[in-house]
Fold this protein.
Amino acid sequence: MKYLLLLAYYIYLINATNLNHEPEEYCQSKHKNVLDCSGNENLTLLKICDFVFNVSVRANFTVLYLERNGYETITREDVKGCRSIIDLHIGENKIRNIEELSFANFSHLRLLNLSFNRLDIYNDNMKLGFTLPKTLQQLTLNGNLNYSKESDQEYPNLSDLSRLEVLTIDGLQNKHFPISYREMETLHTVSLSGLTAGMTGICNIMYVTNTTFQNLIHVRILNVSYCAILNIHAGAFENLLNLEVLDLSGNFQLGFHNLRNVSYSLQFTNIKSLNYSHVYTTFGIGNQVSIEDMCYLWNTSITELVLNSNKIELIEKNALILVPNTLEIFRAEDNKFTFGPYFLQLGCFTNVKEFYGNYQNIAHDPTLYEKEPKRSIPEMITTTSTCPFAQAKFLLKMSEKKGNECHYFDEDDNYLRINLPIFPKHLTRLEYSNCNMQYNLSSFLILPTPHPIEYIDASANILYSWVGPIGPFPNITYLKLSRNYCSHVGLNFFDGFINVENLQLQENFLGLVLSNDDYGPFIFNKLANVKFLNLSSNIISKLHENVFFNMSQLETLDLSVNNIESWTAEVTDLNNLIHLNLRLNSIHLLPRKLMEKMESNAKRLHKHFTIDLTNNSLPIGCDSKQIDFLKFLVKYRRNMKNFDNYSFQNKYGDSINAEEFIKEVINLDKNCRKYDLVIVVCSIGISVFLSVVIGGMVYRNRWKLRYLMRMTKIKHFGYTRLDHQSNDVFMYDAFISYANEDLRFILDKMIPKLEEQHLKLCLHDKHFLPGNDIADNIIQAIRNSAKTVVVLSKEFLKRKWCVYEFNMARMESIYSRGGTNCLIIIVLEDVPARNMSNEMLDWMKSNTFIEYTADAEGEILFWDNFLLALNK
């Protein structure tokens, strides 16, 4: 009994402690005048409001969050201390009852959020059951619908709220807003969306008739997205004369056939923006937009049309003629557009300034299939009579009004012979990224010329070669071609972009072309207006000295995530460069010219320059160039981004922190000066001694040396002719990357062993197409092979094309195989780690490789492991 009493007393103490939480301990004030007491079920509403009242003089809280606190009732006494609050959020609780006059004296309240509770606000008498202050401007009531009583529920009468502007409420099936809403002249926004603030709201309207919204005559913004709508009456919105924004997105079973009815009633409104996205489920065959679907759009005042995620594959010929002349913004992302005659009628977008067509033909998460309603085609409630604007005579007349850019096609037209503008003539912004476009960008004239477009984003496609020229686009200032697997840029590609200021080329394969003598100096030489150039992640190991010739306006240069060991580019023309990103390279020092240029530019422009050398190796040395660079780092350490985390090394190669680095650099002159004379004298002495010894040995053995040089030349520069057969197979089980010195191992060991397993191999000697660029052959071989096998040897590391093949396969694994490793490394012999690049070392540390051995038992195990890796 004694222990039971102690246990009971202990439980009492715990409960007493929980019930005595203080608001100042558990509420947060992240912003001025905002108090957040959400997620604290042991904080009573009375205690919080008392706290607000007591601190109101010094804190002046006007916004209060009380969500997820488990409240079930609200009384007048509970909230009397909160009467000074302007915005009150009490959503996501369990509130069933609110005392009638609880909010009556809230004379400052403008926003009240009661969403996702259990309030009986949709009843037959259309009364809330509690009084709201007339100062209220925003009211949120959604998430309170009781499905079991839905047939008996009605929208509440809120006509007493003479200042109400924004109402968020649940959508009721087969119900209409009462006539009292005609009196609410300030109500401009009504949202019934089933998707509210990232949560699944409650909206089950299903059928929108002529009476559903007829009393919302003052509303300008109407959101009925995700409301399970099946059909819309042809006159559903004609009484909403002030309507400017209509959102019908997320009604998966609505379909395009209802767009005709929607646009019919929108003729009588002041509509500006229509969102008709996701009116089909995500999966299934593609859709075609017909002339009938768009029949009444031409007579509306729409300036923005959104048709995202509708699986649109084709648009019927001449349908674009019905695009309204008022349209300025067109969004059609996440569709399945394929080429058709409608592409030759894009000029019918007479006044469109912005087009967004990103994410075409993308793969969707298959788990969405079960979550979305299945497509059905219910009977139409009502439709308009046969549309007179779909007739050929009217369409021809409309096309003539729109001008020569909008051509009408009759049945006998040969589309390919018609010289039409491809871009709308007023288009200024085009986004078409992540669309799986796989093209070689050859020369292409864009009509009309010159074109006013200013912004193009074609990133994350497969535009693997940029030959050009394309355009011209004399007004473009932003061009993004990143993540396109491009390895070649033509000399004239950028001729049409001479005024571009922001050029985004990251995550391509431009390393070789930028260092090439035939291309490097000329690719950017006409881009004198570029201010921001992004070349990160382009496998750049060296820059041509004239690659930035004539780029006098360049301010920000991003060369991060490459393999640059030393700066080789001339900086004479870079008179505005003040931001340089060299993160994740192999930089050890920067040349004096570059450092002086950054200093002088910053001083002349009255700005601070910045350099990012994060994840480079920065050793301390006594070389004069190294000393200048180290002193520069210390002097401008505040200009070095992330300086404290740089990879510093002392003269012994040990890692040191930034503080130790600074101390050693300060004493660098003293430490290096001690050995200057000794080093010079010793160097001269050793040089003289070695010259005498080597000279004597060369003279004594001059004939033997000549013989050895001749034999070495024959050995290393000879060749072995291989018989090969033509191979029409375009997909291989493996692409073998090897140095020619290891050819015997390939021919005698690997090929016979793999061909026994009926594996198809790709060899550069056998399958590379003659006349093609080597880099292109390599990339195609890797992409057409399930695995890339690198036969690693000392000779392999000496061959730039071998290293190039390794890096291409590594990039393929990272960016194109969804994280699946397609690279297998066979270590043929003991290779010193110092001979390997950082990328290869990192790869071998994080991925398993296979070592070859000539030992009989070991060789059997090697081939078993190798075949297992190939077939994985």
Observations:
- The chain has a mean pLDDT of 85.
